Amino acid sequence: MSQSKREQVISHLRYIRQELREMHQGVLEDGLLPEAGEIRGVMAQMEALLELLEGKSGKKSKPDAS
């Protein structure tokens, strides 16, 4: 993995980890689930990370049937 790609992956993972920590903190402190938009945002970041790792920037995955 090239250094630039590695740095991008690290950056994505740090962002995702921070977002998940904030969501978890909200659940623990307030007992409230995160808003759907927050979850979609983190899922989009995870999808972007997966595409970066797989090298499929133009290809979209099939949506789930659920």
What is the compact description of this entry?
The chain has two helices and no strands. With 66 residues, the chain is mainly alpha-helical. The chain has one domain.
Characterization of the model:
The chain has 66 residues and is an all-alpha fold. It has one domain. The protein is built from two helices and no strands. It is elongated, with a radius of gyration of 14 Å. The mean pLDDT is 83.
Keywords:
66 residues, mainly alpha
Ordered list of secondary-structure elements with their pairings:
Layout: H1 3-30, H2 36-54
- Helix segment count? 2
Helix-strand topology string: HH
Distance between the termini: 34 Å
Please give the largest β-sheet. Answer: none
Question: Mean of the pLDDT scores?
Answer: 83
**In percent terms, what proportion of residues is strand?**
under 5%
Number of discrete domains: 1
Q: How would you describe the shape?
A: elongated
Helix content class: over 70%
Task: Count every beta strand, where a strand is a DSSP E run of 2 or more residues.
Answer: 0
- Which class best fits the helix and strand makeup? mainly alpha
Q: Residue ranges: pLDDT <50 for 5 or more in a row?
A: none
How big is the Rg? 14 Å
